[in-house]
Design a protein that fits this description.
CATH superfamily of the largest domain: Phenylalanyl-trna Synthetase, Chain B, domain 3
Strand content: 25-35%
Strand order of the largest sheet: 19-22-23-27-26-25-24
Length: about 675
């Protein structure tokens, strides 16, 4: 934001030189990036934070300078507008969407002569980097820089029906803006229309059909307040960034619209002639009153350590334009923030106002007090175990943004969960709180692949946010993604690629190290973002806790993946709630283990999980291990059959097993397989 030192002097008596003023502005939070001398004036460039839109004008900065120097503000607007001709405005205003346009003012000026602006106005605008256009357009830009209120001037005679209608655009409606570009609009965008068509993008830019030209005689002057989120969304979608949208996006002073209209109308008459006709049309919606803010001095002293009394606090609040309200408590003060300070809402905001004006340099650094030693949370050990396990299996931990694109998030959550939409997003393309961690991880995979990294294993532990209709719900989840080579660094088996079972094995390792040995995997084809037949539902202690599988080709195509990507997401909070098995230590076995291998022919419909569960269900005390080590399918096998090779381990704790005992145990397993699964020995 560029500010003219001489222009400031029209609002407040500046009794310090430009560099001293710049230094003092910086000390109260308005950081000055530089000072440039232009045409006998000094232009001060201020780097404003997004929460101080009130200082996007000379009036706003003059308020701050006045508080710093203890000087009152002067009015730069005529107290009364000279209205001539008819008492009723020849125009009409109809606001159809007051939520997006709570206030719209319009007035008509007849008989103007469009031409060059006076030299003093041109010099001021050009010093701020603003190109002079003509006297009417320059006035709107001048008042924008002076008071912070964006305005727009229409050629009144080009408005069909001599009326203004503030409405949402019709999907597919087009508008050629002042920059000569045809814009295709959608029904989320707010437009200014006449009786026939859209003539301006609300809060962003006017249309070419109603612009001020040398032939303009009558002007309709707009001064309005538009919803910041609406302006920001439209500007981002259309890729537009104007002086007006920059201010509307951050929030302007709702109450200054009429004052800015008066100022601009008077300047138009002064520089372009003509006369103001009819009253100011002011369509205002009832807006919710901002609640008062209470400051407790003991709270201020506790946070800042500054010794500021009640009298000084009230003096600062008065200087900032706040209205001090009656309050019986002598140790507190209640104020109503001015309309231009939209950043003041809570007690801490008032504390910051006093602290910055008293001087941040007066704050004395102190160490925070401590009542005792800290301690880990109850689940911290489990989190450390989880991270160690995944890192040991080749994963890297990722941290992604909680703000996501709603369409991508819905695609990966299967539309089963409702996300929270932000009312004031930093980026319109990332306007929803995430309901799944997979969007961030898959974007990271996409970025790595685009940079030539093909072997990727990532995990994230983070909160997801759901809307249950009453209030937001936070769920902590664990997500994993993996793709590429199984053994990236080894030369043996270098061509082997990761598959579903690598992901399954990783999740089982996590469960085993956390003591959650009851993880179960069940085939599923109901997960929209996972490949049918290559996905599973994960359950723990009988409850569903997540999904795992290969990405659906449709999702892979969305991210432009040309290699299989495997993903899993689990409810980490639910995992932590299930009691883990307590580690038990036993001495090494004193007696030998006997291994018996078994190859059986079973139906393709029989899963290994079913077989394993049935073998362990025999409760054979001497059976200490069951492992599947080979699966074979071939043309020589009967249709619908496959061969499974099992390894069974037998051992007794107190003696060496005899051949007869081993045979009896092994025979029970073989009989059960034949009985329950129609298994045939090979």
């Amino acid at each position: 934001m560029k500010i003219s030192y001489k222009w400031l002097a029209e609002f407040v008596d500046v009794d310090i030189d430009p560099r001293s003023l710049a230094e003092q502005l910086t000390m109260v939070g308005l950081a000055v990036d530089g000072i440039e001398e232009i045409g006998g004036d000094h232009i001060i460039e201020i780097d404003l934070t997004s929460n101080r839109p009130d200082c996007l004008s000379h009036l706003g900065v003059a308020r701050e300078a006045g508080v710093i120097m203890g000087k009152p503000l002067r009015e730069a607007v005529p107290a009364q507008i000279d209205v001539k001709g008819e008492s009723v405005s020849p125009a009409a205003v109809d606001v159809l969407d007051p939520d997006l346009c709570p206030r719209y003012t319009a007035r008509v000026i007849r008989g103007v002569k469009v031409g060059p602006s006076p030299d003093w106005m041109v010099r001021r605008l050009e010093a701020l980097g603003q190109r002079s256009i003509n006297n009417v357009a320059d006035v709107t830009n001048y008042v924008l820089h002076e008071l912070g209120q964006p305005l727009h001037a229409f050629d009144f005679n080009c408005l069909a029906g001599r009326r203004i209608i503030v409405r949402r655009a019709v999907a597919g409606e087009t508008l050629i803006t002042l920059d000569g570009i045809e814009r295709v609009l959608n029904d989320t965008m707010l437009v200014i229309a006449d009786a026939d068509r859209a003539v301006a993008l609300a809060g962003i830019m006017g249309g070419a059909d109603t612009e001020i030209t040398d032939a303009t005689v009558d002007v309709l002057l707009e001064s309005a307040y538009f919803n910041p989120a609406s302006v920001r969304r439209t500007a981002r979608i259309l890729g537009m960034n104007t002086e007006a949208s920059y201010r509307f996006e951050r929030g302007i002073d709702y109450d200054i619209a009429a004052r800015a209209s008066d100022r601009a109308a008077a300047l138009i008459v002064e520089t372009a002639g003509g006369e103001i006709v009819g009253e100011l049309l002011d369509a205002r919606a009832q807006i919710e009153a901002r609640p008062p803010i209470t400051l407790r001095l003991d709270r201020f002293h506790h946070l800042t350590g500054l010794n500021v009394g009640m009298a000084r606090a009230k003096e600062i609040f008065n200087a900032l334009g706040m209205e001090i309200l009656p309050l019986k408590d002598d140790g507190a003060v209640s104020v109503k923030s001015p309309s231009w300070r939209i950043d003041l809402a809570i007690e801490e905001d008032l504390i910051e106002e006093i602290a910055r004006l008293e001087g941040y340099d007066r704050l004395v650094p102190t160490l925070p007090g401590g009542a005792g030693a800290g301690s880990y949370q109850d689940d911290e050990a489990a989190r450390k175990t989880l991270r160690r396990t995944l890192i040991a299996t080749g994963f890297h931990e990722a941290i992604s943004f909680s703000f996501v694109n709603g369409e991508t998030d819905a695609m990966l959550s299967g539309n089963h969960e409702s996300g929270l939409v932000l009312t004031n997003p930093v980026d319109e393309t990332q306007s929803q709180m995430r309901t799944t961690l997979l969007g961030g991880l898959l974007s990271a995979v996409e970025l790595n692949i685009n940079h030539g990294t093909r072997n990727i294993r990532l995990f994230e532990i983070g909160k997801c946010f759901l809307d249950d209709g009453a209030r937001p719900v936070e769920i902590e989840r664990l997500a994993l993604v993996m793709t590429g080579a199984r053994n990236e660094l080894g030369w043996q088996g270098a061509g082997e690629r990761l598959d579903f079972y690598d992901l399954k094995g990783t999740i089982e390792s996590v469960g085993e190290n956390l003591g959650k040995n009851s993880l179960e995997f069940s085939p599923t084809s109901d997960i929209g973002y996972l490949h049918p037949g290559r996905a599973a539902v994960i359950s723990l202690a009988g409850n569903k806790i997540g999904f795992a599988g290969q990405l659906h080709p449709r999702i892979a195509a969305h991210f432009k993946f040309k290699q299989p990507v495997f993903a899993a997401e689990l409810d980490f909070g639910a995992i932590l709630q299930v009691p883990g098995l307590e580690p038990r230590y036993r001495p090494l076995p004193k007696f030998p283990t006997v291994v018996r291998d078994l190859s059986v022919l079973v139906s393709d419909a029989v899963s290994w999980a079913e077989i394993e569960r049935s073998i362990l269900g025999l409760n054979i005390g001497e059976l200490v291990g069951v492992r599947l080590f080979d699966v074979y399918t071939g043309s020589e096998l009967p249709a619908g059959k496959r061969a499974l090779a099992l390894s069974l381990r037998y051992r007794a704790e107190e003696r060496t097993l005899t051949e007869q005992e081993i045979g009896d145990c092994h025979g029970r397993v073989v009989s059960m397989l034949a009985r329950e699964f129609a298994a045939e020995l090979r």
